[in-house]
Design brief:
Elements: H1 4-9, E1 17-20, E2 24-28, E3 36-42, H2 57-73, E4 81-84, H3 88-91, E5 100-104
Antiparallel strand pairs: 1-2, 2-3, 3-5, 4-5
Bound molecules: adenosine monophosphate and zinc ion.
Adenosine monophosphate is lined by residues 4, 13, 15, 29-31, 39, 86, 92-95.
């Protein structure tokens, strides 16, 4: 499948790894919007939150178990951070592989739109 994040997860395309296990890969965003900007993905291809099912939700559960650990690795766990996932065109999703942005390292703005 021609998916950038599948290729990153399988190391066909290089990335700056922050965390990895058999199900989940986390790496630095190439265009960071804050001092800490990490992308967390399931290794299996799921397009977006819209495609979470009973069959693949274990992987998503695993991501949510790991987000606080990855935040700790990035040293934003104490001061706080934001987790964002974009869905579809109006949601601003550019890469069609489910991913969660971990953004922090500074006091973030309060605007969502
Ligand atoms: P989204 O707009 O939610 O689909 O976010 C996609 C994110 O992936 C953006 O923040 C991009 O900067 C980031 N991105 C795109 N290509 C790469 C890459 N090769 N390595 C790391 N991050 C990337
Ligand atoms: Zn993919």
């Amino acid at each position: 499948m021609d998916c950038l994040f599948c290729k990153i997860a399988t190391k066909q395309i290089p990335s700056q790894k922050v965390y990895e296990d058999k199900d989940v890969y986390a790496f630095k965003d190439i265009h960071p919007v804050a001092p800490v900007h990490i992308i967390v993905i399931p290794k299996i291809h799921i397009e977006s939150i819209n495609d979470i099912t009973e069959r693949n939700s274990k992987e998503v559960q695993r991501i949510f178990e790991l987000i606080p650990k990855i935040a700790k690795i990035a040293m934003v766990d104490r001061k706080g951070y934001r987790v964002i996932t974009n869905i579809g065109e109006d949601g601003g999703q550019t890469i069609k592989h489910l991913h969660f942005h971990i953004i922090g390292g500074k006091k973030l703005g309060d605007k969502l739109i």
